[in-house]
């Protein structure tokens, strides 16, 4: 099975610019990518993993790296001509093999996992009629596309796949629940949780 992991190498995680420098955002993004690739490596089935990057990547491990600086929708759609193909986002730093295996083992024409903000964090397409349209609440749009193509759909409800690390508030989820390279990177960079005053906040020392 082919698995595509899109990765922004040129402008990673711009919404974290108030918390991290450009170089730090790149290092942190590569740590999250490493976590996602480790989780895929732990899935008990043969996977052909491709990192679909906008530029060179240093931490892809054994995965193939393909450079494609076109918009995400175009780049991904060009790789959905062979089924089955899965797409797993590179910022799912809480992902583990178990929910990924649940997604990848689905026999539906489209198995899909939503992000907390309504995006599409991962999917498996077993029918080449499916195409992506990444913008805004893409999860809803992808369900509509599947309906238009009369595809069977399985919605995978997994918190570990729903949490993508985009905003400063998302760092708390990683510090609370993460166990991989991205969490270690945050701790080494001086981030920790402040639970005073009845609120959980991320601070940097």
Automatic annotation (TrEMBL):
Catalytic reactions on record: (2S)-2-phospholactate + GTP + H(+) = (2S)-lactyl-2-diphospho-5'-guanosine + diphosphate
Alphabetized Gene3D superfamilies for the sequence: 6.10.140.50, Spore Coat Polysaccharide Biosynthesis Protein SpsA, Chain A
Entry keyword Nucleotide-binding: yes
EC nos: 2.7.7.68
Functional pathway: Cofactor biosynthesis; coenzyme F420 biosynthesis
HAMAP family: CofC (MF_02114)
Protein name in UniProt: 2-phospho-L-lactate guanylyltransferase
Species whose genome carries this gene: Halolamina salifodinae
Lineage: Archaea, Methanobacteriati, Methanobacteriota, Stenosarchaea group, Halobacteria
């Amino acid at each position: 099975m082919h698995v595509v992991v899109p990765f922004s190498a040129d402008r990673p995680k711009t919404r974290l610019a108030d918390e991290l420098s450009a170089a730090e955002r790149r290092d942190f993004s590569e740590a999250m990518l490493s976590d996602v690739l480790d989780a895929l490596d732990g899935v008990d089935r043969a996977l052909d993993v491709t990192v679909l990057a906008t530029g060179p990547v240093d931490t892809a491990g054994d995965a193939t790296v393909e450079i494609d600086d076109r918009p995400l929708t175009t780049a991904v759609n060009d790789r959905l001509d062979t089924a089955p193909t899965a797409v797993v986002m590179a910022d799912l730093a809480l992902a583990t093999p178990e929910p990924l295996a649940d997604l990848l083992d689905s026999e539906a024409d489209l198995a899909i996992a939503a992000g907390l903000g309504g995006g599409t964090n991962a999917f498996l397409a077993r029918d080449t009629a499916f195409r992506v349209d990444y913008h805004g609440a893409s999860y809803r749009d992808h369900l509509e596309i599947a309906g238009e193509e009369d595809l069977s759909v399985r919605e995978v409800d997994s918190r570990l796949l729903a949490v993508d690390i985009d905003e400063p508030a998302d760092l708390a989820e990683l510090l609370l629940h993460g166990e991989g390279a991205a969490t270690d990177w945050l701790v080494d960079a001086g981030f920790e949780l402040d639970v005073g005053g009845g609120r959980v906040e991320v601070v940097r020392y």
